[in-house]
Amino acid sequence: MSETLQGAISQLHKAAKYTEVPDEILDILQFPAEVLSSRLTIRMDNGARRSFQAWRCRYDGSRGPTKGGIRFHPDANMDEVVSLAFWMTFKCAVIGVPYGGAKGAVKVDTRELSKAELERLSRAYVHAFAGLIGPDRDIPAPDMYTNPMVMGWMMDEYCSLVGQHVPGVITGKPLAIGGSQGRSIATALGGFYVLQQLLKSLDLDKCEKRVVIQGFGNAGATMAEMLHKDGWKIVAVSDSSGGIYCKEGLDPVALAERKRKKGSVRDYDKSCGGGKIESIERDEMFECDCDLIIPAALESQITRDNASAIKARVILELANGPVTSDADEILQKNDVIVVPDILANAGGVTVSYFEWVQNKQGYYWIEQEVYDRLKPMMETESQAVWDLAESKKITLRTAAYVLGLERLVDAIKAVGTQAYFCP
Ligand code: NAD
User: CA 3, CA 281: separation in Å to the nearest integer?
Assistant: First the structure.
């Protein structure tokens, strides 16, 4: 078992100390319900065939159909998929959407594929996992290096296989085929609402508002733009090419435009910052003088090796699993507050849920309606996690797991546990 998966499962046991959980339920939640591994073989543009490893894990479906993204990444592996599916299970419970947790991945570097090859691979994924996914069984969505275009191909493939129009089989689709307004910014917007709700309690309302963002992709770049508009100074950002720093603050809109044209944040020009911009190593990012760090790239980025150097007072996890469990302990000792992924990035799955509801109704909401429904959900659950942390004197992460676990326990108990039979 990998360190990431061990860390994920250890959260379950930590949370179980603060609420009543029958042993049989802890047993259920220790293992994924279903993991399928498959080989995807596609025809490349040059006529050759190439095979890729792929996985789908449905971790637990006690609260509803399972839900989770599909990641295309060269380092993808089964343990990572299971960990991500475990986190999705708790995330859906914490934010209160009626879903269980799942995740999928293909081990691939998409930069090596043409668009036509990417389409064949996306369709091959649906072929391989068609028996597992479905609008009332398991509903995929985008994750790292997958996007609405990929979701569109996948939905089309599923519809061809079952001979019906089934938009609710996948979320994060283009608007033209049943996507939801607001889905593309939902993860960042949800994180922004969480931050707003907790600003006073986190003691950040009177700070200098300097933020460092790791990962300038969908979630990170959108969050940078929202924070910038709200008066925050984006002092450093990074992507897979490396990091950049500007004491006076970067302009995320100009930077995103530059990255779109040139490919990386390292290809900045003068218009991207309010002062001198310097290139920095990816690892130096976390040591910058700042008030808030937002990891929005990969898991296991803040570890026992770099946690002690962090000067920020708060870390808001937009990425899944960016802080390892031993780093968590160091941060707690140093009074750095971590707003956990299963709350901070839950805006994405919440608007995915809205998309699925709209697909089922065949009736589509205007953009403002999406935001009006998202905001109270993020605020209510953020406050619930904060209040639980305060009352039990535990970290926000443990509190979020306790809240999620209580909801999972309620669902599992409702279909019958030992207590039904041996009162
Ligand atoms: P994305 O592919 O759009 O962006 C990822 C960014 O991270 C890219 O800019 C990439 O260059 C950068 N990156 C990769 N490796 C890096 C490294 N070592 N150091 C610095 N930057 C690096 O992906 P995304 O959709 O923004 O997702 C980012 C994270 O947020 C992932 O952990 C994902 O699971 C999580 N997340 C995303 C959503 C969503 O709706 N997009 C929802 C919940 C959670």
Answer: 25
